[in-house]
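Bug #77: duplicate submission created two jobs. Keeping one. Sequence:
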Amino acid sequence: MRLLLYFLMTVCTAFSANAQLKEYTHLFDVEMQEELPMLWRLEKEREQALSRYNWKYDFNWHIATVFDSEFRRDIKTFGAVEKRLNNPDEESLLRDLKHIPPIFYPYIGPALHTVRGLSGKILDLPGIKGTKHKFPERIASVMQDIPNIEFVSPELYIYLSPQFWGEDMQSLEMPQLAHNQADEDMPNLRINPEFMKKIKAKVKASDYGAGKKGPSSGRGIRHFNADANTPLSSADVEAFINTLDALDSFRKNKDNEQRLWMIDPLIAYWEQKQGVAKEISFLKQVVNPCQTIVRKVRWTGLQVEFQQAIGGQGFGAEDWAYTCEKTIKAYRVHNMPQSFISTLKLQRKGYYYKYLDKIAVDEEEKRQQRYFLEAFVHMYDTDLENIKAIEPHNKELSRRLYDLDMNFAGTPIILP
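Kept job's structure:
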């Protein structure tokens, strides 16, 4: 449900959440050589923290014939208090709902009423309260002829809305910015249409920009033992590409992929214990996916198999991660639409930060938005030398990376 709400916020708001702020840069660093905790103990601790079961009676031989007075009082209170289950996401849900046009409430409300532990703070909201056990009155035309559609799970109601399919979009009331949008800090762009016509007639778009074809400079130097500051060469990119077949086999071998997927929640729980915000745990994977993969390999004890997959090209785990990272980020920029480059430049200068005060409901949401703003910019951290290095391999990278389904065992590699 939270993912659906975030999707709706993306569709229905005009705010572009992108910028750069130095104070958050270090938050996305990935420690590939961290001291690992005792995993079995951490897993048990996480299970107990997430469970609402009273672990006082976790084994059948510990169950007494008569409940003691303290436990009897606890369960009596549990059954009598309306707010007995305190959902930790309640405040975030409230913020999300304030950003969503009420026209979507009939498609969200029924699912909210099935979530255990939500209090009246959410369920009694105008527009949400009356949706309990109620099928939406209006659904998309492409869905109307499906037999027994009314028996679909409430969690899928959102996909029935006409607006989800691009129908009846004029009925949406988009959240509006404050009236003083013409901020003096925003650049005042004045473009003469006639001048632009002359430019386009004389200079083709393919003749300039990051994607311009240029003379080949050769494969360049193969950088072994690369670190974060080592320049990327065409030979490095070629070596990285040559690891992809073996990495795909490593991923599909036995239960490796499942183990790499399943370790994500445990790493996130461990980081939150260290004071890392849960948003940062996810954003690290987006900003630095290859370092995240190496980290997950260590957590799952698969270092030997992973090294066998990449060792044929002369890589160690860490220099493979840095080479992969620089290749991915250069690939992202190289394939970025021309219209998007100007937007990214404005984001790097922080022009969009001023709108946080107008958009964010409270300080907590403002903090979360700043994380996403900064992470977005660092997804494209690269330089011209790295872009030139991947240029001869761009088509092959497109084909091979998408063969991985755009992710590697849960870690996103290429984002749309």
